[in-house]
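User: quick one, fold this
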Amino acid sequence: MRSYIQIQPADTVAVALVPLAAGEWIPEGKSGGFPLLQDIPAGHKFALTDIPKGTPVIKYGASIGIASENIPRGSHVHTQNLRTGLAGLLSYTYHPVRSSLVPAPEAFFDGYRRADGRCGVRNEIWIIPTVGCVNDVASAIAARSQHLVSDSIDAVISFSHPYGCSQMAEDQEHTRRILADLALHPNAGGVLVLGLGCENSGVEEIRKRLGDYDSERIRFLVAQECEDELEQGLSIIQELAALAGRDRRTPISCSELVVGLKCGGSDGLSGITANPTVGAFSDLLIRRGGSTILTEVPEMFGAETLLMNRCENEALFEQTVELINDFKTYFTAHGQTIYENPSPGNKAGGISTLEDKSLGCTQKSGSAPVRGVLSYGERLRQKGLNLLSAPGNDLVAATALAASGAQIILFTTGRGTPFASPVPTVKISSNTPLYTRKRNWIDFNCGTLAEGVPLGQLADELFSYVLQVAGGMRVKSEISGFHDMAIFKQGVTL
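Assistant:
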């Protein structure tokens, strides 16, 4: 196994794949090599050449920031001597990079065909509160309904959230759109929309956003209008379970899969192992007619031009520019620094600047052309690679992916997390020690890429794994009973 990697020939830093000790000899350069001047933790960077103060530091073949002091060869390169080179809003010019993927043979999974033609990978009963005031009622109904889980009913789940009232303008609309999107999700064989009765975003507000919905499968209950909302809610869940219980898995083409791409707790190895593997998976799925959705817009800052130039046409380019600049304006409107990233966990794992993080993060998109740009709460319309407006927050972004139509989410991590989303959330480790230590969290290990497993082989293994999940195999968070959701809040609470 290699002990370090220089990702691109032009890079002025290398990344330690394992902990390296001060004094260790690095056989690089025309001089025959050099010793490390400090200990280098796994995932962290060291200088391959002298880097003068004020000059760019190159990783992934691109600048990841500016040296804030002279950095001698063999030095640890991190937050103590590297600063972001990003600042303010930018002007962009479209320089198209044409990419096309060769179609691949069709693959299948056993899923659920819904009446509207869409397919789900789970047959669950969902309870969706319209307002936080009835969260506990929804949870109580779900708890009393667990006996209905069977071979044909995968789960009965309530999705708690704090919103639905005392909201204004865009925040209120966000809540309504996300709740309506979830009510229509094909992973749910039946849905109870549970309202209080006096909230801003009551059941009628959700109902009118559903369009031509299946009234047998989506039911409504207003707690203030019932004598016993628990008993009435339980009765509705029993009726939904009886109906959904007749559904059976049938072979479905993977061209109908929509997979969300997400990362959290990234480390310095994420952009070397897990994210490139997910990018290769995305290409494999798109080659078979399927779709992927990439989000976390603030974590695209610094690498956004790579995505912009892969837009299939200039209209999509302009939409992507708007996607990026709208989020930057959101930060400045609240008096916040645009580039206040990465997180403490990211830094501990070796990520130094937002450019460092974004160049690794965007690798989840693979090489496919961008064919769609979605606003927050907007459902997928165009097959292929799509970009979605949502923040970096794990729960908010993952919920947004589910609301846009993702049946499964791939979540890369170098630090680990037990969280889940409304849909099966595959946790993918960037390093083997995390996978070994947190087997109750992590579903798939990409640390083997740094240990010699070829990228193509690992991507094929991940593709097969995802088809198994789509066919009913439960991921670790599902086994633990974890199902989370969160809604984006931007403005005033009344």
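User: anything notable?
Assistant: The longest helix spans residues 314-333.
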